[in-house]
Amino acid sequence: MQEEGGRASESWTGYVDWRNRPTLRGKHGGMLAASFVLVVEVLENLAYLANASNLVTYLTSYMNFSPARAATAVTNFMGTAFLLSLLGGFLSDVFFTAYHIYVSSAVVEFLGLIVLTIQARTSSLKPPKCRLLDGPCEELSGVKAAMLFGGLYLVALGVGGIKGSLPVHGAEQFDEDTPQGRQGRSTFFNYFVFCLSCGALVAVTFVVWVEDNKGWQWGFAVSTIAILLSIPVFLAGSATYRNKVPTGSPLTTIAKVVTGAILNTRAAYQNPSSAVMDMTSTPTKTFQTGEQGGSNSPKMATIQRPSGSLRFLNRAVERKPAHQALACTVQEVEEVKVVVGILPIFFSTIMLSCCLAQLSTFSIQQAATMDTRIGSLTVPPASLPVFPVVFIMILAPLYDHVIVPFARRATGTEGGITHLQRIGAGLVLSVVAMAVAALVEVKRKRVAFRTDLLDTGASLPITFLWVALQYLFLGSADLFTLAGLLEFFFTEAPPSMRSLATSLPWASLAMGYYLSSILVSLVNGATGSTGRQPWLAGANLNKYHVERFYWLMCVLSIANFLHYMFWALRYKYRLLR
Asked: Membrane-spanning residues where (predicted)?
C-alpha cells in the first residue's frame, strides 16, 4: 500500500478514517486493516452458523415442528438473512459507511440471540416436549411463536447488515491502482471464505455438541458471546481502516437512466425532428483489463460516446431530457449497462444456492436416521458440514498459493483464472453433488427396507458418512462460487455501487433458500394431487421420496449450468467494453 518518495503521506481520495478525517497512504488500509475484518468474520459466522446449521433439530425436537415445516422455517429464516444483505449494501453505498453498518448490525444480531437464549432457557416459553411419531403435538403459537420468530428475524436483520458490509469493507482496504493492491484484494476474498469456514468449523463441532449435550440455552449463549466479542475486535482496527465515503444512491442512477431512455424513446417517435443532445465527454478512471478479469494498469480515459451494447439505454443521453432531473452523463449510462450485464450471472447462481439449502434441511434429517458413530464417538447430525468446511480450509490457501500462481505463469495474466471460470466450476460441482445425494438416499432407503425399519424412527445400520459425500461436493462448489462471485461483483461494479453489488452473492443464497421452499411446496402439491402421499410430507422421513427430489434438483442444475454458459461466454469484462 505504500508509495515511493513523497507520495507516502498523500491522502486517499474518497476515503475517510473512523473520525471522518482524510486517510493517508502508508497509514490506512492494506492487509493489516483487512486482518481485523478476517478475524471478525470468524466470530460472526460462528455466531450465525452455529444455530442455522442445527436449527431444524431445535424446531423439530423442542418446538414440535414437522420435518417439512421445520425445513421451510429454516430456509425462510436463512433466505431472509441473506436477502437483507442488499439493505446493508444499499445503506453502505448511500447513507453510512460499511464501518457503521457493521457495528449497528452486530448489535441487532446480539439482541436477537439474547431473545432466543432466554426462550431456550425458560420451559414456560416452549411447548410441552412431544414425539411427533407418537401422535399429535401441541403446536407453537401466541407469545411463544412471537418470541421465537422475533428472535430469529432480529438475528436475520443483523446477519443481513453484516453480510452486506463486512466483505466490501475488507476489500476497500486495498489499492486497486496497483498490481500489488489488486492481488492483495484477491487474496483477501480467498481468505475471507477461509475465515468464514473457520467460524463454521467451530460452529458445527463445538457449538453443535454443546446444543445437543448441554442444552440449547448454552448453544445460543456461545453464539451471543461470539457476536459480542466481534464488536471490540472490529473496533480495534478503527485506526487502520480507510472507509469509503457514501456517494449517493445507485438505484437513483439506474432509475434516472432507464426513465430517461424510455421518455426519450417515446419523444423520438412523437417528434422525430426534435433536437439531439450533444453528448459531452465524461472523464473517468479505467484500467487496461485482461481476459481474466484482472486489471493490469490504471489510466485516466475519457468516455466520449456510449458503447454499442444495450443501445436502448444510449437514448438517455442522445436527446435533451424531458426534465433536468433526468439529465444523464455517458458514464452513468455505461455504469447502468455494467449492472445490467452482471445480472444474468447473478441469476445463474440461484439454483446452486437452492442446492446448498439442502445442507441445512433434508441432509441433516437424513443423517439423523443413520448411524452417526465413528468408533466410540457419536457425531451430532448437524456437525456434518465439518467435512466440506475442513476441505475448504485446506483448499482455500492451496488455491491462493499454488493454483493461482501456477495459472498466472501458464496464462501470463494477473488473475490466472477468470472469475467466471471459477464460478462455472462451482456450478458443475453442484450438479455432481445432487446426483451423489440422490444415489445416497436410494442406498439409505434400501437399507431401511431390508432391515424392516421403514415405519420406525430407529437408527438405520448405515453410516452417516455416506451423506458426507454430498456435503463434500457442495462445500467445494460453495468455495469456488462464493469467492468468485464476491470478487467478480466487487471488481465489475461501478465504485458507487460496490457495496450493493457485493451483496448479490448473499442475495443469491437468499433466493436459493426461498426457491427451495417453493420447490418443496410445488413438488408436494403436484405429487399429492392424485390422492397419493406427497414426496416430501409427513413425520417419517423414510416414507419421503427425497431421492426423486434430488434427481429433480440435478436436472434443474444441469439446465442452469447451460443457462450460465450462454451468458458467461458472451460476457465482456467491464473495462474491455
From this structure: 29-50, 70-92, 99-120, 140-159, 188-210, 216-236, 338-359, 379-399, 420-440, 460-490, 511-529, 549-569
Give the span between the Cα atoms of 330 and 58, in whole angstroms. Answer: 54
CB 110 within 8 A of CB 159: no
Number of residues in the chain: 577
Q: How far apart are CA 186 and CA 206, in angstroms?
A: 31
**pLDDT tens figures, 5-16:** 444 457 777 788
Separation between Cα atoms, residue 479 and residue 477, nearest integer Å: 5
* Residue ranges, the chain, pLDDT below 50: 1-8, 275-276, 278, 280-301
What DSSP assignment string belongs to 254-299?
Answer: HHHHHHHHHHHHHHHHH-TTSPBPP---EEEEEEEE-TTS-EEEEE
* C-alpha cell of residue 61: 425436537
Give the pLDDT score at 270. Answer: 60
| Burial (0-12, 13-18, 19+ Cβ within 10 Å), 284 | middle
Closest CA to 109 of 62, 158, 173, 64: 158
Domains and CATH numbers, the chain: 8-246+341-576 (1.20.1250.20), 250-340 (no CATH)
Cα–Cα–Cα angle for 145, 146, 149, nearest 5°? 80
167-194 burial: b if 16+ Cβ within 10 Å, else e: bbbbbbbbbbeeeebbbbbbbbbbbbbb
| Dihedral angle, C-alpha 142, 143, 144, 147, nearest 10 ° | 130
